[in-house]
Amino acid sequence: MGNGADERSGDRAEAARPSNRHSLRARPAGEGPPLLPDAGATRKREHLRINLEEDVTGRGITNGFERYRLAHQALPELALDQVDTAVTLLGKRLAAPLIISSMTGGFAEAGALNRVLAAAAQALGLGIGTGSQRVALAGAATATSFQVRDVAPDVLLLANLGAVQLNYGVTPDDCRRAVEMIGADALVLHLNPLQEAVQPGGNTDFSGLARRIAAVCRALAVPVVVKEVGWGISPETARLLADAGVAAIDVAGAGGTSWSEVEKHRAAIPRAQRVAGAFAGWGIPTAESLRLCRAAVPHLPLISSGGLRTGIDIAMALALGATAAGIAGPLLRAAARSAEALHEELLVLIEQLRIAMFCTGSGTVAELRRPGILAALP
Asked: Per DSSP, which regions of the chain are E strands?
């Protein structure tokens, strides 16, 4: 859930396979038992509960968009109903440049939420990502909680696995299985080194991971997207990912949900709580990460997520060079209330975006990027 980091890190085992053809390799000695589906589901339940019940927003850090202003045009020279919010991302048309970001899955209640989220995406022509499917690779019984194609046959659907699991036994074939499991259009590999570092038993070996990501990019027939989970992508990382062959990057910057705060709430002992709590203000603000990555990899589509709350935030992200925006937390909370509350929240975001485009004289998303539309405040 959240930004896809609900893949739990105590799972150092390679995915348990459902047939004799896929055997589970032994883990290194002393690393504990392999992830069991019920253990993964328990962690996912904890994440969902914490995100719905606790304040896990980063402290002392914002998404950075308050440093910018869109230039108001009193004479926009177009009608509001002429504004076209549609974009194309990863070969799929979106009626509005918005992705319901990777969140949850792995147990029945999460599956019900995923279906509510996916049905809304289908109704409004948006994209959607699942939560991490690691637990479903380990046990086929949980796969149904991620499967939403029957209610969202046309959407841009993103499968999801933790990139670090490529260093712990997950293979390109497993990545292919995750995509096929839900009929996805692309695979998201999420990066979460800080989260892994602040939780007991976290998977903290990120060495040589760019090479493994490149192998997945070569092996899969669908595009591979890499995203952070809420601390941002640096320009150095963006270049590494571009060289690895990823099709797009989701910067997932700081300013929204902090997964170190989530892990602080999960921590059982005061020392772990104190360690995690020190990182409440960590990360690259979303707007800054987006600006730096746009300069570093000008040819790659970028998705801007991390603390976006309004359609004006979305408009500013597009003006800074994003192809689309991603929102998770506010939509999760709306979906937990009702399908109607979620639909209303999405309609508000889209209408705010349309009006922001209209009042900047931007009939299309591309026109939002013309010089002079976005100004940095002194």
From this structure: 68-70, 87-89, 92-94, 98-100, 127-129, 156-162, 186-191, 224-228, 248-250, 302-305, 324-327, 374-376
Q: What is the CA angle 168-231-34, rounded to 5? A: 20
Whole-prediction pTM: 0.89
Q: How many domains does the chain have?
A: 1
DSSP class of residue 34 equals P
For 253-297, what is each residue's pLDDT tens digit? 999 999 999 999 999 899 999 999 999 999 999 999 999 999 999
CB 101 within 8 A of CB 327: yes
* Cα-Cα-Cα-Cα dihedral sign, residues 31, 32, 37, 40: negative
What are the structure tokens assigned to 213, written together? 């990501």
Residue 258 within a domain: yes
Query: What is the CATH classification number for the domain harbouring 79?
Result: 3.20.20.70
Count of C-beta atoms within a 10 Å radius of residue 370: 12
Token pair in block for residue 153: 């046959």
